[in-house]
Design a protein that fits this description.
alpha/beta
Length: about 150
């Protein structure tokens, strides 16, 4: 039996390279699990060391790209402007996957391309929690995700 092209998973894009960003990524992963969502988190699925071989780098790229293409939604942490997260957001847009950006910092400024490429924005942990609270139809609480109204640069 063939697997469906798009699963019910959420792709979690975001940095985890500092103690603060790691704590944020772990918190969003935990919240998704608590709400009953399946996730694809590159941090969990596959990470590379600094001296990874070319073959391992290609495998990582393929697995992450494949994971992104199969997910229903991309939830992207825009704190820190991680280049991998920015690439994933652009790829998701090109693959016609909705991108919801979030930041624990409600005063965040965004680049216009990130702000306009996203289907919605979640400011703060309360909005993130509400968005991930499944509706009776077992979908996301889309009404919580707002259009970007903040400052751009």
């Amino acid at each position: 039996m063939n697997q469906p092209l798009i699963s019910d998973k959420i792709y979690l894009a975001g940095p985890w390279f500092t103690p603060e960003s790691m704590a944020t990524q772990e918190r969003i992963e935990k919240l998704c699990f608590e709400k009953g969502w399946h996730i694809f988190s590159p941090r969990i699925e596959l990470t590379l060391g600094k001296n990874a071989s070319q073959e391992d780098q290609q495998k990582c790229f393929f697995m992450n790209t494949h994971g992104l293409m199969k997910c229903k939604l991309i939830l992207a942490n825009v704190e820190g402007y991680d280049t991998g997260t920015i690439w994933e957001m652009g790829a998701a847009y090109a693959y016609n996957r909705p991108v919801i950006i979030y930041s624990p910092n409600p005063d965040r400024k965004l680049n216009v391309m990130l702000a306009q490429g996203a289907k919605g924005y979640l400011a703060g942990w309360g909005a993130i929690d509400n968005f991930l609270s499944p509706t009776p139809e077992r979908t996301f609480n889309w009404g919580v995700a707002e259009n970007w109204k903040g400052e751009i640069f």
